[in-house]
Design goal:
homodimer; alpha/beta; Glutaconate Coenzyme A-transferase; eight-stranded mixed beta sheet; five-stranded mixed beta sheet; globular
Chain lengths: 497, 497
């Protein structure tokens, strides 16, 4: 495959084994790697790095777009290669190492990592490892199923390792739109004015002299392991569709809504599936990860265009989709995550942002990251980029977890990723709380009535009423603010009686 | 003065008394009023409204730019006129009413209020009351010392009351730059590419038929009551100047830095004063409120241009400045707060944002609004617009309050307005914590060592060490997270021993 996919002849001599490429990476280096939500990560060199660590122990800082597939984070953690990791992860082994303090995790807004790099507010990338479909005549790198931070990593790294992966359809070329904002303070506006704006190039325009090694691979992306919609996620989707229908009826939104963003995971995916049978037409997405539901919406004709930073599909959907990528290419674009998540564009397009809450409170503050306020789950991801700057920030959650032992709606969040100023709408399977332009006291009544599970409603009301007696803009009984969490630690359940 | 300042003859007949104008406002109405940080608020009609409330009791929703001068919020509160108030306030009487639940306060990001209005996600403005320097030949309204939300209020209101205030120099005309972004999702980019970009008109281009009344006034803006820099604010300024000097030395910033934003209040004002004798040259500001320090920086030649949404000066500085406004006008612009605080522009220009924390925690989360997590101080203001989207978000605070009885750095903030993902730099009089690209465990060590008052350092370390033993990305002893606040409630001091 080399000659088809390495179209710059002088680079053919750079093809080496994964082990040889891995030897370019030394102790203390910062490595910038492709990969965003299990899509398009480098698959061979990181494994070679993990394998050779027994003989040549090194510690690196690993930057990616977001989470990785193929157990890369697990294997690198087990091999002891990771000193620092950013800006997102979702691997159980790495998560444990982070929570034990063995790997330092910097949990960043996904649009900001490359801003920090560009302004030298973070150590520079020494080596970039980028999965590619092809290298062009000019030496440009054509990404695979994600763009993530790959472009900025490749353009700023001293050395680039390309993993040319033949398992990806060559027809992915042309899907990407690579655009890098200028240096500040002299930056121009970013000319995206709609989901389907194309403003850049199909390949990452690196200096071919910086390509230090090319490794040939053929391993597939890991499939997404999405659960089918269940009665609760279906109820959440129905509440949201009803609400949006009423917004259309009231003339606040057109029947095409505004461009949609949906976070990764089962609930947001189910919500989007709910739109397949909705009354809305000519929908657009300006999102981060495109999941199975995006393909279903495209196939149904409901969705006219989808913009993302990666595509993460389940195996059956991937099998049906990628062989026919050519027929979708005029309705899809993959962008750098800095552009998919850019505040400028999110605000301009008026995005309706749908993200999942780990925990929320009766006043509408949202915790997306920390179990019990201390232990990292995955990271904030793009939810902060979107929620702060969106037309409407919607957070969805099942009202309980662990078979009812945990209420996801609590008196006070133990960690606040999205505060009352940003959270417009909360939805659980029990109902929807429209919090727009309400004071905290008003919010609490609606959240308790509409979103809290009936098993926790009385104790939520009791807390709120006793807090009200103490007064304040956001009434609390401070010494009991985390009493539900303490009850869970003691008894296994947040139920107080 | 009428003919000089009402340049559209047909409007001369609209001149009425404040009482007559106030009679246009009925129970249940939403009133949008000029005024931003004690500058340029309507001064006569709200007082007439308060006075007539005894005979004609009404309740209104009052929207402004931000806080008001001349005790307007106090008098309206005492008269019982206010049902709802947004998006910011700083009046002691109103604050009490809010915390007692008598007035509902919606604490919004200052750039967002008019987005909510424009998209009909909030009740529309029935009557706008706008202080003006003049009405143009076309019927355009020329604002005074603030623009705030005045333009969007006036353009969307069914009826407009203009307060033509002769105490403001006529030469203010030409200072303003009125630009209203388009409706979403079809909005274009906002073409501000530097602090001194002028993209709009000098007056608010209303339909003159909507001007229902004109009231002639002559009351001055309330002066800012700024304290002189003290040893602590001088120390904070010195730490920050040293830090920024090192950023220049390291090549991360030019000697003109990036455009500066500074929040309202003594500390931020003192920090800017510190720049008068700094090594930086050709500075620019892209900020919200312009205070005394802006004038000092302009006079010193350090500052080449300042963009804001209002000017709030102390009496001596105002007396020296406004009579000579003409000589400053090519180095100043006042914009709608939606534009001064717009995420698109903040991110594009790469703003260095300096705001005051009410409370922060050892992990770098910041509380800007709620005393003890419950009682509103003033509101989030523009700090969230800036911190989330800035090049660098700096928060400043004195390390203690109430003669040392309160540590402003605590184990966990009782309310989170700005989380770890957004807070780059913390500064107290004791030192500066550079938190960029650090994990929470690393942040805590630096914050405790550099920023916490020595009287609280041991108890902060003790908390953190015991939290570390429990593990986690952001270690906490959850049942003790607010123990310092509880100690203060019990003993009057946060000191645990």
């Amino acid at each position: 495959m080399s000659k088809d996919r390495i179209r710059r002849p002088s680079l053919l001599s750079k093809v080496v084994s994964a082990d040889q490429a891995a030897s370019l990476i030394h102790d203390g280096m910062t490595v910038g790697m492709s990969g965003f939500t299990r899509a398009g990560e480098a698959k061979a060199v990181p494994l070679a790095l993990a394998a050779r660590n027994a003989a040549h122990p090194i510690k690196i800082t690993l930057l990616t777009g977001a989470s990785l597939g193929n157990n890369i984070d697990k294997l690198l953690t087990e091999a002891g290669v990771l000193a620092r990791r950013l800006p997102f992860q979702s691997d159980a082994t790495l998560r444990n190492a982070i929570n034990q303090g063995d790997v330092l995790f910097i949990d960043q807004h996904l649009s900001e990592t490359v801003e920090f790099l560009r302004s030298h507010q973070m150590k520079p990338v020494d080596v970039a490892i980028i999965e590619a479909v092809a290298i062009t005549e000019d030496g440009g790198i054509v990404p695979t199923t994600s763009v993530g931070n790959s472009a900025s990593f490749a353009l700023s790294a001293k050395q680039i390792i390309v993993e040319l992966n033949s398992s990806h359809a060559a027809e992915l070329e042309g899907l990407h739109d690579i655009y890098i904002p200028g240096k500040r303070p002299l930056r121009d506006s970013i000319p995206v004015v709609a989901s389907n704006s194309r403003i850049g190039t199909h390949a990452i325009p690196v200096n071919p002299d910086n390509i230090a090694a090319i490794v040939l691979t053929d391993k597939f992306d890991s499939p997404a392991s999405l659960a089918a919609p269940d009665s609760e996620t279906i109820a959440i989707a129905a509440h949201l569709t009803d609400f949006l229908s009423n917004e259309v009826k009231q003339g606040r939104l057109s029947n095409s809504l505004n461009p949609l963003q949906a976070g990764i995971g089962n609930i947001a995916n189910s919500v989007l599936y709910g739109l397949v049978h909705s009354p809305f037409e000519q929908l657009t997405m300006y999102s981060e990860v495109l999941q199975d539901s995006t393909v279903a919406l495209l196939d149904s004709g409901k969705l006219v265009f989808a913009s993302g930073a990666s595509m993460t599909l389940s195996q059956p959907v991937a099998d049906a989709f990628f062989p026919h990528i050519a027929k979708y290419k005029d309705r899809l674009v993959l962008r750098p995550q800095e552009i998919s998540n850019h505040p400028e564009i999110i605000r301009r397009l008026g995005i309706i942002a749908i993200n999942t809450a780990l925990e929320c409170d009766i006043y509408g503050n949202v915790n997306s990251t920390h179990v019990n306020g201390t232990h990292m789950m995955n990271g904030i991801g793009g939810s902060g980029d979107f929620a702060r700057n969106a037309y409407m920030a919607i957070f969805v959650a099942k009202s309980t977890a662990k078979d009812g032992a945990i209420s996801t709606v609590v008196p006070m969040v133990t960690h606040c990723d999205h505060n009352e100023h940003d959270v417009d709408i909360l939805v659980t399977e029990h109902g929807l709380a429209d919090l727009r332009a309400l004071a905290p006291r008003e919010r609490a009544k609606i959240v308790i009535n509409n979103c809290v599970d009936p098993a926790y409603r009385d104790q939520a009301l009791d807390y709120h009423n006793r807090a009200l007696a103490r007064g304040g803009q956001t009434p609390h009984v401070l010494e009991e603010a985390f009493s539900w969490h303490q009850q869970r630690a003691k008894t296994g359940s947040m139920r107080l009686s």
